[in-house]
Amino acid sequence: MPCLLFLCCTCVWLLVLPVKISALSNEDSDIDVLVLLPEENSYIFSIPRVRPAIDYALKSINSNESLNSGFNFKVHYNNSNCGNQALFSFVERSFQKKPDVVLGPVCEYAAAQVVRMASYWNIPILSAGALASGFGTKKAEYTHLTRVSPAYSKMGEAFGAMFKHFSWKKAVLIYQEDKERNCFFSIEGVYAVLEAEGYHTMTLAFDLRHPMEIEEIIKSIQESDGIVVMCAASNDIRDIMLAAHRRRMTNGDYIFFNIELFNSTSYGNGSWKRGDKNDAEAKQAYAALKTVTLLRSVKPEFERFSMEVNRSLQKQGVSGEDDSINMFIEGFHDALLLYALALHEVLKNGYSKKDGDKIVQHMWNRTFEGIAGQVSIDENGDRDGDFSVIAITDPEAGTHKVVANFYGKNQSFEVQPNVKIDMFIQRLPHDENRVHGNRDTPPCKSSGGLGESAVTGIVVGALLGTALLLAFYFFRKNYRITIERRIQTEECDIGKHRQLREDSIRSNFSAA
Ligand SMILES: *[C@@H]1O[C@H](CO)[C@@H](O)[C@H](O)[C@H]1NC(C)=O
Ligand SMILES: *[C@@H]1O[C@H](CO)[C@@H](O)[C@H](O)[C@H]1NC(C)=O
Ligand SMILES: *[C@@H]1O[C@H](CO)[C@@H](O)[C@H](O)[C@H]1NC(C)=O
Ligand SMILES: *[C@@H]1O[C@H](CO)[C@@H](O)[C@H](O)[C@H]1NC(C)=O
Ligand SMILES: *[C@@H]1O[C@H](CO)[C@@H](O)[C@H](O)[C@H]1NC(C)=O
Ligand SMILES: *[C@@H]1O[C@H](CO)[C@@H](O)[C@H](O)[C@H]1NC(C)=O
Ligand SMILES: *[C@@H]1O[C@H](CO)[C@@H](O)[C@H](O)[C@H]1NC(C)=O
């Protein structure tokens, strides 16, 4: 009797089983991708701009054995705007169904919240943005974030390599505040590397509400004798360069850098040109300016990709008049590819798509073939960055060329052949003794004093030391005042709001 019952049960079970399996696999055969980006096309990483790149990546994944795990990728797009909306969209969407992977957000303050939440939920999150240095602290709070575009600190490495290569000692970092604080975070990346390597840095900020006082900037540059690194709107860069030129600071005495990562096509050839009466002067001034930008690599498949994305953008009526493929569009394509690669490997090892931490592990510390060339993700889950320095090589025509490259993976800075190296040599404008006599002497190094009388020596030494210390202190204080005044006036306006926003990324940039 029990035997019959058992058989019966087995029969029923066997009948039910296939249904069960197919129900299970139906639900489980989807990879739910949530893309959180702004809908607004004024952002160069808006949903309409990035969508064609993601479509392209999906096609590659579906047609390639080593990327296709038999899953059906379902992509949902939700508006992130550039702030809190990102978190709201993410949470709201997750009430219906938690996504398996998140792509985006790009804006720093939007990303901070979403990345924390995704990490808590064990969901891998990949972004071509979130470039601020704060996101590098993965262990502490951004555990599941993989950054597929080079972060600002990677650009900082490029400056670090240049400072070492040319034995530069000091830097003046100048940035413009704006709503998204891109320049603040860019300069922070440079600051972090230069400070850590012991270079003397000074920082100056200006913004729209406090119009740039060119005099003040020029004076600070002259006082510091440092390498000038700027991040600002192109018109402001031009104004600074014109002012510097009129004070004869562009004849090799100073070296100016301009950071332009996302909009590189608008730089380079003719970026000094405005069609106004200052063009001739600006062309001369720009001979002293170098621009740091992303290294562009191109391979045949990239051409196909650009054409397809371009066509799709035109169909949607999104303006693509300048370079339609930027770092973000390229990055999100590569992000989906990287996720598919990691997923495939993780499944092969017997885990499931829900093992977010395992998938994240497989995305880090590896290289893979991206749409524009090889992509190397470091041990911390951040892409290594390759950067180019472009400069005017024909002063008559005012045309630019790539004069040097920095490769992040091997930390190698390489000047192009046939480039005159003196464009990187700073000729100090002032009398060396005057400048260095009261500034660079370390106050504690006053060891001169063991002459005839040791006592006199020590007393004199002590007095000298104190005097130097005081001088040094007041000098530093002066510096601080210039810098902090600007920072303070700014904080009065935005006050706690900005403070809060700053805290939410844990940016460790300090301006003194
Ligand atoms: C499939 O993807 C792998 C990994 O990215 C790549 O090495 C290979 O060339 C691709 N194959 C085809 C046919 O595209
Ligand atoms: C987010 O996506 C869901 C489902 O795809 C949709 O219903 C909702 O309207 C979207 N919200 C926004 C703000 O785009
Ligand atoms: C890119 O540069 C052009 C020309 O300088 C400018 O009009 C445009 O607003 C810039 N775009 C972005 C996203 O910064
Ligand atoms: C994209 O389209 C624009 C015209 O809308 C064209 O000028 C540009 O060359 C195209 N780019 C590519 C890569 O095809
Ligand atoms: C990264 O990969 C290299 C070899 O590819 C290995 O030696 C190293 O231990 C890995 N690092 C981590 C943190 O897994
Ligand atoms: C600038 O134009 C010159 C000549 O037209 C060209 O050789 C050079 O590659 C261009 N440089 C950049 C950075 O586009
Ligand atoms: C660093 O890597 C780049 C690109 O991968 C390569 O061209 C260059 O030769 C390397 N430099 C050194 C010193 O290994």
Automatic annotation (TrEMBL):
<dbReference type="InterPro" id="IPR028082">
    <property type="entry name" value="Peripla_BP_I"/>
</dbReference>
<keyword id="KW-0732">Signal</keyword>
<keyword id="KW-0675">Receptor</keyword>
<keyword id="KW-0325">Glycoprotein</keyword>
<dbReference type="InterPro" id="IPR001828">
    <property type="entry name" value="ANF_lig-bd_rcpt"/>
</dbReference>
<keyword id="KW-0812">Transmembrane</keyword>
<feature type="transmembrane region" description="Helical">
    <location>
        <begin position="454"/>
        <end position="475"/>
    </location>
</feature>
<dbReference type="InterPro" id="IPR052612">
    <property type="entry name" value="ANP_Clearance_Receptor"/>
</dbReference>
<protein>
    <submittedName>
        <fullName>Atrial natriuretic peptide receptor 3-like isoform X1</fullName>
    </submittedName>
</protein>
<keyword id="KW-0472">Membrane</keyword>
<dbReference type="GO" id="GO:0007165">
    <property type="term" value="P:signal transduction"/>
</dbReference>
<feature type="domain" description="Receptor ligand binding region">
    <location>
        <begin position="50"/>
        <end position="393"/>
    </location>
</feature>
<dbReference type="Pfam" id="PF01094">
    <property type="entry name" value="ANF_receptor"/>
</dbReference>
<dbReference type="GO" id="GO:0017046">
    <property type="term" value="F:peptide hormone binding"/>
</dbReference>
<dbReference type="GO" id="GO:0016020">
    <property type="term" value="C:membrane"/>
</dbReference>
<dbReference type="InterPro" id="IPR001170">
    <property type="entry name" value="ANPR/GUC"/>
</dbReference>
<dbReference type="GO" id="GO:0016941">
    <property type="term" value="F:natriuretic peptide receptor activity"/>
</dbReference>
<keyword id="KW-1133">Transmembrane helix</keyword>
<feature type="signal peptide">
    <location>
        <begin position="1"/>
        <end position="23"/>
    </location>
</feature>
